Amino acid sequence: MSIPALPRLTSALADEHRNRLTDLAQEVDFPSGTRLFNEGGHADRFWVLRSGTVTLDMHIPGRRPAVIETLGSDELVGWSWLFRPYVWQLGAEVMTPVHAFEFDAPAVRALMESDPAFSAAVSGWVGRVLAHRLHAARTRLLDLYAPYGSGHGL
């Protein structure tokens, strides 16, 4: 079972919705080793990478966090900001210096509440990212911890 392509911002949203979203963005930079968020923390922002890489990880009791996915240019970092109670479901760490758009989640949610078409577009994009991340997490955890791997090719 292959992992579907991750929906990138430039292809996931129509120009109008992408422009409305990026109008809310602030450009930020992070050095390697920066922890963007930890699993269980308050999700009040999210990022779209312009350059650099970020790993997503999952806490495994008694072990080092398992890296689920590595994200790069034009990819969404963080989806938990969209769903109550706004708590990070994974952790994220900057692996190579990052330049990104940073979004204030309450401001984006307010715009979504005022514009149903924008809300549907952003929710659909984030939902597709979420589905991709859940599939990637499952596959990665099976590869790491199942007796015979994930069964690719079965």
Domain count: the total is 1
Can you write the helix and strand succession as a string?
A: HHEEEEEEHH
Q: Tell me which CATH architecture applies here.
A: Sandwich
Instruction: Classify the fold: give the CATH topology.
Output: Jelly Rolls
* Low-pLDDT runs: none
Give the N-to-C terminal Cα separation: 8 Å
Task: Based on Cα principal axes, name the global outline.
Answer: globular
Please explain how this structure is put together.
With 154 residues, the chain is of the alpha+beta class. It has a single domain (9-143), classed as Jelly Rolls. It contains 4 helices and 6 strands, in the order ααββββββαα. Strand 3 and strand 4 form a beta hairpin. Helix 3 (105-114) packs across helix 4 (116-145). The chain starts with 8 loop residues before the first helix and ends in a 9-residue tail after the last helix. Residues 9-78 form the Cyclic nucleotide-binding domain. This is Crp/Fnr family transcriptional regulator. Pfam families: cNMP_binding. InterPro entries: cNMP-bd_dom, cNMP-bd_dom_sf, RmlC-like_jellyroll.
List keywords for this structure.
154 residues, alpha+beta, Jelly Rolls, six-stranded antiparallel β-sheet, globular, cNMP-bd_dom, Crp/Fnr family transcriptional regulator, cNMP-bd_dom_sf, RmlC-like_jellyroll
